[in-house]
Structure formats: structure tokens, C-alpha cells
Amino acid sequence: MNSMTEHVSPPMVDVRGVHKFFGDLHVLKGIDLVVQRGEVCVVLGPSGSGKSTLIRCINEMEQISAGRLYVDGELMGLREEEKGGRTVLHRLKDAEISRQRSRIGMVFQRFNLFPHMTALQNVMEAPRQVKGVSKRDAEQRARDQLARVGMSDRAGHYPAQLSGGQQQRVAIARALAMDPELMLFDEPTSALDPELVGEVLGVMRQLAASGMTMIVVTHEVGFAREVADQVVFMDDGVVVERGTAHQVISNPQQARTRDFFGKVL
Length: 265
Known about the structure:
Layout: E1 13-22, E2 25-35, E3 40-44, H1 51-58, E4 66-71, E5 74-75, E6 78-83, E7 86-91, H2 94-101, E8 104-107, H3 119-129, H4 135-148, H5 164-176, E9 182-186, H6 194-209, E10 213-217, H7 221-227, E11 230-235, E12 238-243, H8 245-250, H9 255-264
Parallel strand pairs: 3-10, 3-11, 8-9, 9-10
Antiparallel strand pairs: 1-2, 1-4, 4-5, 6-7, 11-12
């Protein structure tokens, strides 16, 4: 096959000129971001810089105000139509948005587990309800993912019987049970006691090593150094600097980036 006809797969995430307003508050100011398949992108920056809003937009939990956002080449949340020589955008129906979102795993700061369900039942729920997987297959899938995050021995425990770190590992298993192409993490360790952070980061390291495409919003600079293929530093709704961990964390070019890492390191 010659290079002219060779199929080049699109980036897993392609964010183009994305803006987000909440009323008069301009939270994202023209964000561009490309994350390739199998890449780990860690987003760092001060609180209020727009990091969490960005990944909530990728997962369509927030509707973008302007720009385009693609996951695996598919325009998210919108349909383009040519009318009279111009492009008109239509918001997709809820069912279509749910289908798009089902390909993306999301892990939040708060674990959001159902308190009346065991760890196993929590992980089984989405494959059963969203994908219509049979009970037997959903249980097998859930047990496999609980094993993957080191929680097999807690499958029958309720969230109240688990530590914060264990609950977060169940939440990761729950996201993985949907067989996502992309995993988004929104400050997954910030609600944990310091001694529990390591067990969650350990699971995330294993995921990264397995080739999962991941975007991680975090304050864990050590994790970024160790695992990130790409580090993005955001401040005040813009991407200030991007590059390898060495470039951005150890050798930043921008004054804002230098100031931030000067304080946190």
C-alpha cells in the first residue's frame, strides 16, 4: 500500500478552538489540544484554570460555547450540515450523545458510588443499563475489572465499608467495565487522605502501561513526571505551555509556568 492511500487513524482527542462560557464567565478561551491513541496527557495548573471544565466538555457533561471537539474522529455533541454554502451546527439528540459518551470512561474527584449497592453491583450497573449486557456477562466483566484494580476481595462490600482509596478503585473499575476507548480523570486523588493516594495512582500507572488513552487532571506532579507522554499547563482558561514532562515541569519557558512550579515543587 503506498503512502497516498494508507489510512491514518485520527487522534483519540482533537480539541479545536474550544470556548466555554458560564453566563458572563469565560472559562475556556480557545483551547487546542491533541491527544494521540495510547497517549497519557496530564493537565496541570492552578485551581480555577479551566482544567476540569475542559474534560467535562470532552465527555459532554458540559456543552461547549464555540469550537469543535472530536473523539476518534467523531464530532462530539453536534452534527454539521451544509446550508446555502455555510455550515450549520445542530445539537445531537440525548440518545446519540449517550452513545458517544458510552465510549469514554470518567473518574471523578468524588467516587459517586451507589451506597445501596455492593462494589460488584456498582461495576455491573452501567454495562447492564447502558449496553444491555446480560447479567452473567456483566458480572464476569465486573469481576475482571475489580481484579484489575486489586479489589476482588472487596466485591461484596458496600461503599460505606470501603476506604476512600478503595472506593476510587471501584469507581475506576466501573468506568473500565464499559470498555472505554478513552479514560478521563478529574482530580481522582484530591479527595483522598494522603496515605491512600498511592494505591489509586498505582492503578492509573498500570492502566497507562496497558496502553489506555488517558487525560488526567491532577495536582500530582510526580505522577505527571513518571507517566505523562504530554503535559499541558493551563492557567486562566488558556493552554500556557505544553510538551514532555521534562520540558514543561523541569524546564518551563513561560513565566506563569515557572512561577507555578516554583511554588508547588
